[in-house]
Amino acid sequence: MVTFGWPEAFFIVRAAGWTLLLTAVAFLIGGLMGGVLAILRLSRIKLLRRLAAGYILVIQSIPVLMVLFMSYYGLSLFGVELPPFFAASASLAIYVSAYLAEIWRGSIESVPFQQWEASASLAHSPAQTYRYVILPQAIRISLPPTVGFLVQLVKNTSIVSVVGFVELSRAGQLVNNATFQPFQIFTLVAAIYFAICFPLSRLSRHLEKVMNASRPH
Questions:
Q1: In the chain, where are the structural domains located?
Q2: Euclidean distance between CA atoms 157 and 21, whole angstroms
Q3: Helix, coil or strand: residue 141
Q4: I need a surface site. Which of 16, 60, 104, 134 has the fewest CB within 10 A?
Q5: ∠ Cα 3 6 11 (to 5°)
C-alpha cells in the first residue's frame, strides 16, 4: 500500500491549478454571456426580455450537476463527444451566466434614475449612456456580489469529478483510493479550498463595506 507523502501531496496541489483554471475559464465565458443576458433583460424589446428571463429561470431551476450530465453524456447521444474539461467549462459557464446576469441586472437597475435623466439631457445615445454613465457605476456596485459568487463557483468545480476530470476534489479521491489515509488527504484538500476561498470572501466583505461607506445617507 502506498503511503501518503510529498509526491501525493504535490499531485493534489497540482490538481488545484486545474481547479483555478476551470474557475477562470467558466467565469470568463459565463461572464461574457451573463453581460449580454443582463442587457437583454433590460431591453425595450419585450421578446428579448422574455427570452433572457426564460433562459435564466430554466438554468437557475436546474442543478448545475444536471447541466454537466447533459453536456457530457447527453450530447454524446447526438455524436458530439466533448472532452471532460470542455464539458465542465461549458456547463459551469452556463451556470455562471444565469447568476451573473441577475447580479449585474440588479446592479444596473440600482443606479439612480437621475443618472439616466442626466445622460439623456446631454443627448447621449443609449449606447453612450450605458458606456459612460451607467456601466461604470453598475460595475462598482456589482463587485461585492460578483466576488462572493466567485467563491461559490470555486467550490462548485468539485462536481466535475463525476465526468472524470481531475480537479482538486477528484485528486483527493484518487490519492485516498491508493493510500487509505482520508484524514490527512482531505484535510489538505480542505486547506487548499480554504486558502483559495477565504481571501475572496474577505475581499467581498471589504468591497461591501467600502460600497456602504461611500453611499450617500
A1: 6-214
A2: 10
A3: helix
A4: 60
A5: 95
End-to-end CA distance of the chain: 65
CA neighbor of 146 nearest in space, from 27, 51, 59, 19: 27
Residue type, 211: M
Sign of torsion over alpha carbons 17, 162, 69, 100? negative
CATH classification of 6-214, choosing from 1.10.3720.10, 1.10.760.10, 3.40.50.150, 3.30.565.10? 1.10.3720.10
| Residues 152-169: b if buried by 16+ CB within 10 A, e if exposed | ebbebbbbbbebebbbbb
The alpha-carbon radius of gyration of the chain (Å, integer) is: 21
Where does residue 177 rank: exposed (0-12), middle (13-18), buried (19+ CB within 10 A)? exposed
CB 98 within 8 A of CB 60: yes
Tens of pLDDT, residues 149-200: 999 999 999 999 988 899 999 999 999 999 999 999 999 999 999 999 999 9
Q: Render pLDDT for 10-64 as a digit per residue (tens, 0 to 9).
A: 999 999 999 999 999 999 999 999 999 999 999 989 999 999 999 999 999 999 9
In one-letter notation, the amino acid at residue 137 is: Q
Q: How many CB atoms lie within 10 A of CB 105?
A: 23
- Which residues lie below 8 Å from residue 91, measured CB to CB, with a gap of 6+? 64, 67, 68, 70, 71, 72, 160
